[in-house]
Every structure is written in structure tokens, then in C-alpha cells.
Design a protein that fits this description.
By secondary structure, the chain is α/β, with parallel strands linked by helices. The protein contains 6 helices and 15 strands. The strands form 3 sheets. It has a 6-stranded mixed beta sheet with strand order 5-4-3-2-1-15. Strands 6-7-8-10-13-14 form a 6-stranded mixed beta sheet, covered by helices on one side. Helix 1 packs parallel to helix 2 and helix 4 packs parallel to helix 5. The longest helix is centred in the C-terminal third of the chain and has 23 residues. The mean pLDDT is 96.
Length: 300
């Protein structure tokens, strides 16, 4: 995709919102609106909500009626968020369960500019399938071209979603398209029985892989996660661990959250992107003539 729009090289302020979700979809949207307004009051110009922000994480089991949670883009929730973006003059990243057509459902994120225009939607490219994360049942993967950037009023942004964050190829392509900041709306948590043994390692791995994308590509990374325990009949449910963060192009934390509702705010300077890429010229030194094998699933 060739980005279009008025991006400048002026510093800009981003915000990510870490919160929980209940079974009350209307209350989830109302709370998100309140938190967006709070973030805007604190100076945020680009604000990202968590993955599937307006609903519980419904992928914990395969239930056909849960497809009813989906809505089109554009649709009622994006229309409400468009009005909010225009009112506050902020860019919004709004992750939703999208009904694109009969039998075609996506894990998507709508991107709304500061004048309320719906610029488009990113559709999650990598779809996981693990115990209590039955996403392949619900989501069709994103189609080509897949990875995209948007030139918003304040910055050129890229959006990837949750499981995408483990793939350096996704971060690299989005960076090469011109992203200054990469947002990763997320819903990741622990199986309660595993927390004592694996909890700390899982959080550290999750943060480390994303910070590595900031370093390897010389850009800002921002990851809002959800928090709170969510039940699922017949299981122990999931404990979403939060720990949202924003990292600079050197991988340094510039804002971090704990495990409760929180808004993170960080000032981003495009000059730091330029400086990082000059001093660590990883993009310059790529051997694009030698990377053909990466297109294979496996190399024995």
C-alpha cells in the first residue's frame, strides 16, 4: 500500500488503553470512550484500544452463537468512534470482531483519523489456535496486501494484532512501508494453573519480542493488553496479565503498566527514528538478494 496523507516530522503523543471487558458490550464501549477522553485530556493524539475491545475474549471455546458479536466495518461502533475522534481531534485505533460477509469474520482494527474519517482497517494476518485461544474457528486471516500503514494527521502508523507480534516479518514489512510507530493491540493472558511456573517467563517473552521489533526496525512500539479474569464454563478461564508498554526505537521502555486498568502516554519524536536508523543501519545493510529462502515453510 502506498500511504497518503499529511504526516509531518513533528513530535506526536500516543496513548494506549489497558482495561478489562465484561459481557455488557454497551458498557465496554462507554468505558472505552471515557478512557479515550481521559487520554486525550492528558495530551494523547493517537490512541489505541486493546484487541477485540468491546467484548470479552470470546475465543475461549467454539460457540457458533458468538459470531453474533461481530459487526461490519463501517458499522455502529466505528461510527460512534468516528464521532469521538472528530470531537477530540485524535486518531483512534479501534480493534473489533468484524463481520465482512456471510461466513467471513475477521479480527480487525479500524483506523480513524483525527477528523473522524475512517481510513481503513487492518485484518489480523496470523491466527493462533491454542487451548482457550480458538481463533482459527472464528477468524479468517487477512488477505493480501495484508500489512499496511496509514498517514494520519499526526504520524504514519502501522497496526498489527496480538499473535502478529511474534513474527519479525510482519514488523519488518510494516516498517519498510514507512511506519513511525507500530501498534500491537493484544489479548494475552495466563492459564491460571500455569502462572506460578510460567507466568513471569511468558510476560518477559511477550515484551522482549516486541521490543526487539522496535530495535531491529528503528521505530516506536506500543502494545495495549487487556486485564482481568474471564471465566469459561468447564475451564479455569484466563487471567489477562496487562503489562502494556510503549518502547522507543532503542527498545527502552518509555511507559509501562501493571495488571490493572491504566492509560499509558508517551511522546514520540520522529527525529529519534531517524537517529536510530542512522546509528544502527539495519535497514541499509539488509541482503535482500539473499532472502528468497524465507518464503519456504521449512528448510531441511
Amino acid at each position: 500500500m502506498t500511504p497518503t496523507g499529511p504526516t509531518t516530522n513533528e513530535p506526536f503523543t500516543i496513548g494506549v488503553i489497558q482495561d478489562a471487558a465484561s459481557a455488557d458490550l454497551a458498557a465496554n464501549v462507554a468505558r472505552a470512550e471515557r478512557l479515550v477522553r481521559d487520554a486525550a485530556k492528558r495530551g494523547a493524539q493517537i490512541i489505541c484500544l486493546k484487541e477485540l475491545f468491546n467484548a470479552p475474549y470470546f475465543c475461549k471455546s467454539q460457540q457458533a452463537e458468538r459470531f453474533d458479536l461481530a459487526e461490519p466495518i463501517p458499522g455502529p461502533t466505528t461510527a460512534r468512534m468516528q464521532r469521538l475522534a472528530e470531537d477530540l481531534a485524535v486518531v483512534l485505533i479501534v480493534p473489533l470482531f468484524e463481520r465482512q460477509g456471510p461466513g467471513v469474520y475477521r479480527n480487525a482494527a479500524a483506523v480513524i483519523d483525527a477528523d473522524g474519517r475512517l481510513l481503513g482497517a487492518y485484518r489480523k494476518m496470523h491466527i493462533p489456535d491454542d487451548p482457550l485461544f480458538n481463533e482459527k474457528y472464528y477468524f479468517t486471516p487477512g488477505d493480501a496486501p495484508g500489512f499496511r500503514v496509514w498517514q494520519t494527521r499526526y504520524a504514519t502508523i502501522g497496526v498489527l494484532i496480538c499473535w502478529d507480534q511474534w513474527y519479525p516479518e510482519a514488523a519488518r514489512i510494516t516498517s519498510l512501508l514507512g511506519a513511525q510507530v507500530l501498534f500491537y493491540p493484544t489479548a494475552i493472558g495466563w492459564h491460571p494453573s500455569e502462572r506460578a511456573e510460567w507466568g513471569a517467563a511468558q510476560v518477559d517473552s511477550w515484551r522482549t519480542i516486541q521490543r526487539s521489533h522496535a530495535i531491529a526496525n528503528g521505530l516506536y512500539v506500543a502494545a495495549p493488553n487487556r486485564v482481568g479474569h474471564e471465566d469459561e464454563p468447564g475451564t479455569d478461564g484466563l487471567d489477562f496479565f496487562g503489562r502494556s508498554f510503549i518502547a522507543d526505537p532503542y527498545g527502552r521502555y518509555v511507559a509501562e503498566a501493571g495488571e490493572t486498568e491504566e492509560i499509558l502516554i508517551a511522546r514520540c519524536d520522529p527525529a529519534m527514528v531517524e537517529t536510530a536508523r542512522r546509528h544502527w543501519p539495519f535497514l541499509r545493510d539488509r541482503r535482500i538478494d539473499a532472502y528468497g529462502p524465507i518464503l519456504n515453510r521449512y528448510l531441511a
